[in-house]
TrEMBL record:
<dbReference type="Pfam" id="PF02754">
    <property type="entry name" value="CCG"/>
</dbReference>
<keyword id="KW-0408">Iron</keyword>
<dbReference type="GO" id="GO:0051539">
    <property type="term" value="F:4 iron, 4 sulfur cluster binding"/>
</dbReference>
<dbReference type="InterPro" id="IPR004017">
    <property type="entry name" value="Cys_rich_dom"/>
</dbReference>
<dbReference type="InterPro" id="IPR017900">
    <property type="entry name" value="4Fe4S_Fe_S_CS"/>
</dbReference>
<dbReference type="GO" id="GO:0046872">
    <property type="term" value="F:metal ion binding"/>
</dbReference>
<dbReference type="InterPro" id="IPR017896">
    <property type="entry name" value="4Fe4S_Fe-S-bd"/>
</dbReference>
<feature type="domain" description="4Fe-4S ferredoxin-type">
    <location>
        <begin position="20"/>
        <end position="51"/>
    </location>
</feature>
<keyword id="KW-0677">Repeat</keyword>
<keyword id="KW-0479">Metal-binding</keyword>
<keyword id="KW-0004">4Fe-4S</keyword>
<dbReference type="GO" id="GO:0016491">
    <property type="term" value="F:oxidoreductase activity"/>
</dbReference>
<dbReference type="Pfam" id="PF13237">
    <property type="entry name" value="Fer4_10"/>
</dbReference>
<protein>
    <submittedName>
        <fullName>Unannotated protein</fullName>
    </submittedName>
</protein>
<keyword id="KW-0411">Iron-sulfur</keyword>
Amino acid sequence: MTTTYDPFHPQYFVDADLREEMTRVYDLCHGCRLCFKFCPSFPSLFSFIDQHDDQDAARLTRGEQDQVVDECFQCKLCYVNCPYTPGQHEWALDFPRLMMRADQVRFRDEKRSVHTKLTDAALAKTDLVGKVSTLAAPLANLAIRTPGSGVRKVIEKTVGIANERVLPPYARQRFSTWFRKRGGSKLAREKQAQVALFPTCLVEYQNVGVGHDTVKVLEHNGIECSLPKGMQCCGAPALHQGDVETFRKLARNNIGVLASAVREAERNGHDLPIIVTQPTCGYVLKKDYVGYIGGADAELVASKTRDVSEYVWQIHKGEDSELDCDFPGIVPATTTYHAPCHLRAQNIGLKSRDILKLTGTQVTVVAECSAIDGTWGLRAENFEMSRGVAAKMANAIKKADTEALAGDCSLANGGIVLETGRQPVHPIQQFARAYGIPEEPTR
């Protein structure tokens, strides 16, 4: 048995070794049970072991072990709760990385059905799907806009995306196109700093308004924005399916593009933070690029990556920077802020909450999981389970009953729409309206 989360270790992809490590970890988790509330994996795991009088984790069948893997949606909250993680305890227990190791071994070793391959492709090839769908936005949006419609049921049967899931519409003009056509940064005050934007697929092709407002809020505060050429999907959908080779290909490309931009800025005497607008992608750049690629460039990219709200708060607290805290625009009296799991797992604090408080709104935090977590909750086979997990989130949002609703994750926000009927906005968008920055007309 090898306790390793290093994909370059010679035993990493050996199934027999993986199964022994799963038994070790399952036994430790069964004895602890701190994470029982986070996802369906743990109740299933505990019930599988409890059915045996001796409660021996080694008695689990291969199918039972795999069910635990399938029910893990990579919320990463084990990192927030687990006291036995590598570097903190001799047990070196990393449940999320073990689940990804299992997915990767199964992806390599097991034959996938045609339907599964189609679902994997539809969810992982975000750039291809995004480029085609933005070119044909009216038709694409007609197909996806009504959950439960006949067209959506056909989509579910063919590519496996749950027909009732709320999906963000495609923009006719991509974010990068908008950025290029406007002709560079338009600073509203003296330049304080410069940043590179990693807009993410969701902002590039769908929620382009998040990108518009990110640029405008930063420019309002004298931050010059750039968009390095050649960026692609961060690779999270492929990684979470177990397709580590596709993930590495995407990651190496992005690391090369971003590290080159950072080093070029350094040669010119400037620091260049990398600003990310979606929490899953920020987590991948900070954590997974280092773990699955490694090297000086990956470490550099990770060290420079900031969530957009994290960076705005950094401006506010910086000795050499200043944030405009005059908010003459629209400021709701009360706001519910949904804190996504992949942002909480970055251990940076609730910076979106903090910047919203600066505007004068009273913030209620809801930290319950939406159970989307990348693309897991979009799959038809996980839909009902996902809704069961999301019920606590929905109840908390309804109980808060505030004037405004904000959340950083576009996919989680779709889950909120489904469960509550309310449409959240990204915190940076609410922040922009508080400045009096009008919403950019979208095509």
